[in-house]
């Protein structure tokens, strides 16, 4: 691709058009919030020179020497550990969750550089309990070879390590895709003291899920997020919580797509559409509560010029007006479905406070991957753009700064070793992640994070491998096609700099890092942080 220094970069031109329309563009403000009525989403215009300008001393990939971590102080007594995850929630969705903002962001630390190294359901969740990247834990995708529940060896995971350290271990909600099928309906993975997992395919029936209750299947006629909230309160209210420290993972299905169908769902409104946009199902009290919500008007929405995109074919399509409207409906329902999770977070914290457990409990709130509806002409997940690989992430607990933000890059493979360190437990599988608590206050903003994606329908050959290093994203496929983005000057990832000679030095370094760490394992995976 020739250097386009003679014309205005696409991200800047798009931002200008948005500004002329009466909006502002790039870090997101609170914008539309529940209870304030219909408002357009507001953004801040991205500032900075064109992507094709000559690099300067601030454009190095890994500047300076690795930082020294703050000393990690082991808690005096073993803390309780609570992991709350949502399914397919994006960073931009969090502004609509007031309880999460108050109870997690204001009372804890927001991790602005949360990352999913393989941003799709099964690999992300397997990383949360294994501490490994997908090429090591083996659950590479959702279906087929290397996909789903059957691909994950779960006999040596975080709950096993914690049980050996004296913990009760509890699970509620969605496990790995395919769990509950082909004879696994009553299977309870090793290491869990109390197991309440939905079985597929009922996991995606929001109003009639079946739960494996410690080896016995029970069907509920209750909205799933409310059910998971009830089960959470029951577990936390149990007098047994006073006898031993505990680890609880609550994995909500919302806002993942699921049924039953509603009259305003795209597949119902457009029965002749062969590929309607999939939607989720909000709780009855939240239906149409965000019917005023529009799609974001950011420069990456429905990207017109995708000639520089070398890897993803779907970005080269044109999204027609019908599918744009379907995407708007899908986004509206996603935010509505998250309202029940938001209330559940408040109820959970309230229960911890009333039972006297809150002060000795670490709480992490995060998602398995991000999600797009129209950005780069895509809908869904899996790919390497920041809106997908970037995930919401918050932590609160003893010693965690309140109301602060951290730039430290944290992946969903880091939480298993972090929780193990807090508990004084020893991982017995080779973990790729690291204990991130010592890095949250160090102003660390860069770390080499290997990323990879695999075919949804199965296969062990990656669609892409690459690295995210601070503001740099680099990916390549097996044919050698590559994309390079420098988000400090191109926050919307509109201009691929792979063939820009001014960034050739950075391209070479990122390519070298990709090939060095694509198959990394354990201590061979990058663990240094940089400012």
From TrEMBL:
Signal peptide coordinates: 1-26
Glycoprotein recorded as keyword: yes
Region of interest called Disordered, as start-end residue ranges on this chain: 29-64, 259-289
InterPro entries: Alkaline_phosphatase_core_sf, Sulfatase_CS, Sulfatase_N
Pfam families attached to this UniProt entry: Sulfatase (PF00884)
Gene3D superfamilies: Alkaline Phosphatase, subunit A
Key words, A-Z: Glycoprotein, Hydrolase, Signal
Domain Sulfatase N-terminal: residue ranges: 79-425
Bias (Basic and acidic residues) ranges: 261-276
Keyword Signal: yes
Protein family: Belongs to the sulfatase family.
Protein name: Sulfatase N-terminal domain-containing protein
């Amino acid at each position: 691709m020739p250097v386009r220094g003679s014309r205005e970069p696409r991200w800047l031109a798009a931002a200008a058009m948005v500004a002329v329309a009466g909006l502002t563009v790039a870090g997101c403000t609170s914008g539309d919030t529940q209870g304030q009525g219909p408002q357009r989403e507001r953004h801040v215009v991205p500032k900075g020179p064109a992507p094709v300008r000559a690099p300067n001393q601030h454009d190095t990939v890994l500047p300076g020497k690795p930082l020294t971590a703050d000393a990690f102080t082991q808690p005096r007594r073993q803390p309780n550990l609570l992991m709350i995850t949502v399914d397919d929630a994006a960073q931009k969705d969090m502004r609509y969750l007031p309880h999460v903002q108050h109870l997690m962001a204001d009372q804890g630390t927001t991790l602005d550089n949360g990352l999913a190294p393989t941003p799709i359901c099964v690999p992300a969740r397997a990383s949360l309990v294994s501490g490994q990247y997908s090429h090591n834990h083996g659950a590479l995708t959702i279906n087929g070879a290397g996909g789903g529940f059957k691909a994950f060896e779960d006999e040596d995971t975080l709950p096993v390590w914690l049980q050996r350290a004296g913990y009760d271990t509890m699970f509620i909600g969605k496990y790995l895709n395919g769990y509950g099928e082909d004879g696994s309906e009553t299977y309870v993975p090793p290491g869990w003291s109390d197991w309440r997992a939905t079985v597929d395919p009922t996991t995606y029936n929001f109003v009639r899920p079946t739960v494996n209750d410690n080896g016995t299947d029970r069907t509920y006629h209750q909205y799933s997020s409310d059910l998971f909230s009830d089960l959470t309160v029951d577990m936390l209210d149990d007098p047994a919580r006073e006898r031993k420290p505990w680890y609880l993972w609550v994995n909500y299905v919302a806002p993942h797509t699921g049924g039953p169908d509603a009259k305003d769902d795209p597949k119902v409104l457009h029965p002749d559409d062969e590929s309607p946009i999939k939607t989720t199902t909000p709780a009855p009290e939240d239906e149409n509560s965000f019917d005023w919500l529009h799609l974001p008007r950011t420069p990456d929405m429905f990207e017109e010029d995708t000639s520089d995109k070398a890897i993803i074919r779907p970005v080269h399509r044109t999204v027609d007006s019908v599918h744009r409207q379907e995407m708007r409906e899908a986004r509206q329902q996603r935010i509505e479905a998250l309202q029940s999770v938001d209330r559940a977070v408040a109820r959970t914290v309230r229960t911890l406070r009333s039972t006297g457990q809150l002060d000795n409990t670490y709480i992490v709130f995060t998602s398995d991957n991000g999600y797009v509806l129209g950005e780069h002409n895509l809908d869904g997940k899996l790919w390497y753009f920041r809106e997908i690989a970037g995930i919401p992430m918050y932590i609160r607990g003893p010693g965690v700064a309140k109301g602060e933000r951290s730039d430290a890059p944290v992946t969903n493979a880091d939480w298993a070793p972090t929780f193990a360190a807090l508990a004084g437990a020893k991982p017995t599988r080779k973990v790729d992640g690291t204990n991130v608590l010592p890095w949250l206050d160090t102003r660390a903003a860069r770390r080499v994070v290997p990323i990879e994606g695999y075919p949804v329908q199965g296969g062990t050959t990656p669609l892409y491998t690459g690295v995210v290093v601070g503001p740099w994203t680099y990916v390549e496929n097996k044919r050698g096609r590559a994309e390079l983005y420098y988000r400090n000057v191109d926050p919307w990832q509109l201009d691929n700099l792979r063939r820009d000679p001014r960034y050739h030095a950075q391209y070479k370094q990122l390519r070298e890092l990709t090939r060095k760490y694509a198959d990394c394992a354990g201590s061979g995976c990058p663990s240094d942080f940089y400012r």
